[in-house]
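Hey, weird one. I pasted the DUF4743 domain-containing protein sequence into the form twice and got a warning about non-standard characters only the second time. First submission, copied straight from the form history:
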Amino acid sequence: MTQSNRFKSLLEVVNHCDDFPLPGKDLKAYTARVNSLYHFKVGRDTTTLGFVLPEVASKVGRCSGWDINNKSVPKTLTLSGGHDHDSRSEIIRATMMHFKHKRTFGVLEKWRSELKPCYGPTGSVLFSIERAAFPLLGIVAYGVMLVAYTRNGQGGIEGLWVQRRSRSARTHAGLLDGTAAGGVPIRKKPFTTLMSEAEEEASFSRELVARRARACGTLSYFHTRRKEMGGEVGLLQPGVHFLYDMEVPEDVQPRSNDTNVEGFELMAPDRLKWEILAGNVKPWFALAVIDFFVRHGIIHEENERDFVEISMRLHRHLEFPVFGVSFLTNLLN
């Protein structure tokens, strides 16, 4: 492993994944960036649901059911049409289908026919939106991440089961990813999503995952889309991932069951850290691994200079409605 590293430290990796300006570190840069974007809102509610690039807002704002205000501070893009989940979702669908057919936005070339929710300030689902389209509006995406791992004879972490994404995958082709991961669709709970993704990507039975997987918190970050993600560069993508660990014995091994997964490798922590610093790991999986390292004592205050900042940065406070979001009940509104 002689390749030079892309990143000099794990904190640099965190900064790369969570790259939207932080108000606590540089308020001037944060304010300037926020005021350069359009704030996405629904109806008369003043809550900002996402940040939208000007070149996107100018096109969406001309569509039926939308209003754009270039004179307010901050500037706003408002979904003014619709009065409930279904009517708002239909306006969103018609708008995005129009742009898809016109081939206006490259990100829509990866249309998946999979709906994701947009939550309001009270946690209700305001509308559903095609998965490929949600970065255009800058709304929070919710996902799940499973890390399966084994222990050695001394009880320490022997290795993490890491998937290699297919070289022809739609995004992050060829990079390392979690044992299983995916976005949480509309009307599905995170753990149900996890079981589906583990079965689809790693051939883990639902019974195995239900018995062995353990919820261990969340990640939150604010990422700017780059070239390797496909589509428009610079779209804003805040995200929350629900994390799950699953200790497995040596005779339980993941097997590829998905065309987007090239294969799996049991990777020792030191090797995986090297891969992260080399830039060979999908951004949010890199954060998930760092969180795993923190929780399992692989990195700590005596061997990682930036331990305190890293630990705090894995749980970014997002400017959008997240605190009211609950999966206890059906919150369609």
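That's the output from the first submission. The warning seems to come from a hidden character in my clipboard, not from the data itself. The longest helix spans residues 85-102.
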